[in-house]
Amino acid sequence: MLQQATRSAPQLTRQLTVRLAQTADEVREAQALRFKVFAEEMGARLSSRTSGLDVDLFDAHCDHLIARDEDTGEVVGTYRILPPARARALGGYYSDTEFDLTRLQHIRDRMVEVGRSCVHPDYRNGTTIALLWAGLADYMHRGNHDYLVGCASISMADGGHVAASLYRQLKRTSLAPVEWRVTPRCALPLDALDGDRPAVLPPLIKGYLRAGAFVCGEPAWDPDFNTADLLILLPMQQLNQRYMRHFIGTR
What we know:
With 251 residues, the chain is of the alpha+beta class. The chain has six helices and eleven strands.
């Protein structure tokens, strides 16, 4: 798996490539980027015992998709991917820690989980995200996987009012069929929040929904990251081909 593109920047053109990490050192590079974004930039309380790295018990069982600037050698974007066979061996998905996934039991053997997605601040543009999504699409195609699932986060810097407002919008437009609904283990107290505030969908969630994904129910509160997390489910047969061709190119 190797995707590449050029990225325009002031006075230079950079070459970005995306592929699965092949070595322990490359995984550590992804974990270092995650630490910079989640801990240093967002203020998350990470449980890692390794200084400067975001490491948890799921990492060793996952594939790690990385975007690299070939001019500087720096890893500038990453996605963590947990395929179903390894989730079964591990005893569950990360999403199981935030949601009761009982109603997804019948599709677990065909379901890939993605998470811990982040991009270096200097590379938060369409090219980097498109390459990461192209890598995910390739991974799903090669593995013949039918469903993509993951937690998508909304900041709770305002106390959760924006998250409540966004969920109220999404409940009307993007809620999954009842057979794919999940229950948060630590629910966001929607009734105690102002759900009528103006709110703009985060780009990642907007991208998932445009691709054909569903929101599987009410948000969970993640106190370590101080985010409201929605479970997103994308059945590959529902994939919006026109949108994906525009976003990642013809495959």
